[in-house]
Write a structure and sequence with these properties.
Number of domains: 1
Number of strands: 0
CATH class: Mainly Alpha
Radius of gyration: 15 Å
Shape: elongated
Helix content: over 70%
Mean pLDDT: 95
Distance between the termini: 28 Å
CATH superfamily: 23S rRNA-intervening sequence
Number of helices: 4
CATH topology: de novo design (two linked rop proteins)
CATH architecture: Up-down Bundle
Length: 117
């Protein structure tokens, strides 16, 4: 069976962000941490749900939601980096993973949209 890289990367993002959030001790950014956890876990949840769609439009919807949540995850990471709560290496590592996921999601959306037409 072929490895599902999208699912693998989405799970990796959720796990990595959870670990990152546990490492950030400052309570002044608790909303940012909450939102970051929420958006990254939503990427994983939507990609997982898309593995068992009711229809192609349902799968497309899940992938589009996951892509938006991935972009949101990037924005929270950017805020943490700009606020000096995470270093550049940590920011780039997670941002690059988000970029990889978004590219896979975009390609999947294009393929599904072609199949629907």
């Amino acid at each position: 069976m072929k490895e599902n890289l999208l699912l693998k990367y989405a799970e990796q993002l959720a796990v990595d962000i959870e670990a990152l959030c546990k490492d950030i001790k400052n309570t002044n950014n608790s909303n940012t941490i909450f939102q970051l956890r929420k958006s990254s876990s939503s990427v994983f949840a939507n990609v997982t749900e898309a593995q068992y769609p009711q229809s192609l439009p349902d799968m497309l919807s899940k992938f589009k939601i996951a892509r938006k949540e991935c972009a949101e995850t990037e924005s929270w990471l950017k805020l943490l980096f700009a606020s000096n709560f995470i270093d550049e290496e940590t920011f780039k590592k997670h941002r690059n993973l988000c970029g990889r996921i978004k590219r896979l999601l975009t390609a999947s959306c294009i393929t599904i949209e072609k199949k629907i037409r």
